[in-house]
């Protein structure tokens, strides 16, 4: 039984799991909090969970206690494995731990859909994994939802709307194919050791189809060019993309003098479709 496991502080002492910076380790030791994060992933009964970076297993315990059918946890730091083995022993057949790098693992070979991904990850790895999970070849997604802890500033960039400083490539890329919202914010003191900044949990569910039609590569190029020079007017920022860009912007109802952060997803998709048409007629969309 999970309830019979010792408190996490004891586990950390017993296995000498002092957090290491090189692994980006900031542990959650409050089991009420890890249960809340697990619940933020929705109903786990009947779902397999892919947990990235379980560390000493606080969130893992939460996932199992909330009824996950099966948890596959991948952890890079071998020191954590004995502590995780104790959790596996308390829940026979429900937890499998793999030592390794989450970036190199294909969870589909180990899990059965529906699959929910839940992770409290080092921030750099989190953003890299999110981008991978949102784009081909990993798209269409193997997952039903992602519940991921990020630095609060990164979480705000994921859910940002036009007109805000946080709005940019990450928001557009995620929101084109998925629904994303912040479900929990946590102060630095929630972690051991405490990081410098606050954190937030983002819950992401995949849409059945992109919100507006567009060719993914063209859209990515347009958005990258627009936000690489976000202070410039779009007629200047997108100049290198296609000849006569001003006319294309006007044709889809975007003022050429507008700046990228004023433009919503729908208009970026319209521009991508228009430029793809130009490409189809023998024109060429330049790399930004
Ligand atoms: N989930 C635990 C918790 O909430 O207390 C630990 C969170 S800690 C922020 C991040 C964990 O991810 C660490 O245990 C670290 O060793 C592990 N980790 C870092 N990079 C990883 C990677 N590429 N693949 C798998 N695990 C990784």
Automatic annotation (TrEMBL):
Q: Which UniProt keywords apply?
A: Cytoplasm, Methyltransferase, RNA-binding, rRNA processing, S-adenosyl-L-methionine, Transferase
Please list the residues that bind S-adenosyl-L-methionine.
26, 28, 53, 75, 101, 120
Query: What range(s) does the Ribosomal RNA adenine methylase transferase N-terminal domain occupy?
Result: 33-208
Q: What is its main location?
A: cytoplasm
Do you know which CDD domains this protein is assigned to? AdoMet_MTases
| Catalytic activity, reaction form | adenosine(1518)/adenosine(1519) in 16S rRNA + 4 S-adenosyl-L-methionine = N(6)-dimethyladenosine(1518)/N(6)-dimethyladenosine(1519) in 16S rRNA + 4 S-adenosyl-L-homocysteine + 4 H(+)
Q: Name one Pfam family in it.
A: RrnaAD
UniProt-recorded name of the protein: Ribosomal RNA small subunit methyltransferase A
The record lists the organism as Rhabdonatronobacter sediminivivens
């Amino acid at each position: 039984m999970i309830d019979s496991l010792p408190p996490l502080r004891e586990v950390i002492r017993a296995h000498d799991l002092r957090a290491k910076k090189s692994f980006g380790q900031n542990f959650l030791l409050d089991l009420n909090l890890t249960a809340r994060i697990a619940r933020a992933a929705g109903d786990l009964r009947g779902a397999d969970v892919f947990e990235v970076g379980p560390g000493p297993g606080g969130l893992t315990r939460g996932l199992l206690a909330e009824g996950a059918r099966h948890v596959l946890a991948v952890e890079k730091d071998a020191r954590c494995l004995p502590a995780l083995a104790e959790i596996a022993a308390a829940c026979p057949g429900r937890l499998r731990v793999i030592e390794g790098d989450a970036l190199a693992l294909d969870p589909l070979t180990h899990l059965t859909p529906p699959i929910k991904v839940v992770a409290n990850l080092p921030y750099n790895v989190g953003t890299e994994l999110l981008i991978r999970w949102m784009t081909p070849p990993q798209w269409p997604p193997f997952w039903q939802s992602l519940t991921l802890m990020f630095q609060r500033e990164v979480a705000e960039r994921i859910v940002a709307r036009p007109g805000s400083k946080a709005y940019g490539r990450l928001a557009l890329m995620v929101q084109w194919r998925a629904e994303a919202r912040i479900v929990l914010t946590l102060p630095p003191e929630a972690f051991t050791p405490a990081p410098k900044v606050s954190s937030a949990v983002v819950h992401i569910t995949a849409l059945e189809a992109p919100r507006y039609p567009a060719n993914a590569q063209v859209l990515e190029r347009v958005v990258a060019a627009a936000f690489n020079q976000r202070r410039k007017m779009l007629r200047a920022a997108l100049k290198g993309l296609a000849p006569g860009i001003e006319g294309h912007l006007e044709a889809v109802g975007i003022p050429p003098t507008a700046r990228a952060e004023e433009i919503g997803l729908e208009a970026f998709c319209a521009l991508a479709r228009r430029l793809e048409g130009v490409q189809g007629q023998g024109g060429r969309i330049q790399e930004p």
